Amino acid sequence: MFKLFVLAVALTCIAAAPQGQSPDGQAQTLSNTSTDDGVGNFAYAFETSNSIKAEAKGSLKQLKDDQGKDTTGEVQQGTYSWTDASGTTYEVKWIADENGFQPQGAHLPTPPKAL
Q1: Closest by Cα among 4, 54, 14 to 34
Q2: 3, 11, 50, 100: most buried by Cβ count inside 10 Å?
Q3: Rounded to an integer, what distance in angstroms lies between the CA atom of residue 14 and that of residue 27?
Q4: In terms of DSSP H, where are the helices of 17-99?
């Protein structure tokens, strides 16, 4: 389930990034790697000619459910970045675990500090 969420986030970043930086308007894949051991551990990374980069890895994690019983969950972490038409690069570092999706980036809004 987290893998689908991460893929959706990555595809959203690709769709939202400016596409006019290639002369023909079509981004080319410069690199693309992925591994999946079939039991919950995976990693991927890619980079495109229009300055989009993403990488992530995930693994299984032992957790406790609401009744205190042992269960298995997945933890994932990664980064994605893109460069806008003015040349500004944006980067998001994220983790997704039992606490949900937690992105961090200098351009992201943050809550006000407590008094």
Answers
A1: 54
A2: 50
A3: 10
A4: none
3-state SS class at 39: coil
Can you give the pLDDT of all 115 residues of the chain as single tens digits? 545 444 444 545 555 555 445 555 688 999 999 999 999 899 999 999 999 999 999 999 988 888 888 888 899 999 999 999 899 999 999 999 988 999 999 999 888 888 8
Measured distance CA(106)–CA(99) in Å, rounded:
21
Amino acid at position 67, single letter: Q
- Residue 64 structure tokens: 């406790």
Amino acid at 55: E
Task: For residues 88 and 72, give the distance between their C-alpha atoms in angstroms, rounded to a whole number.
Answer: 40
The predicted model scores a pTM of 0.70
With a CB cutoff of 8 Å and minimum separation 6, the contacts of 115 are: none
What per-residue confidence (pLDDT) applies to 114?
84
Angle at 46 between CA 45 and CA 50, to 5 degrees: 150
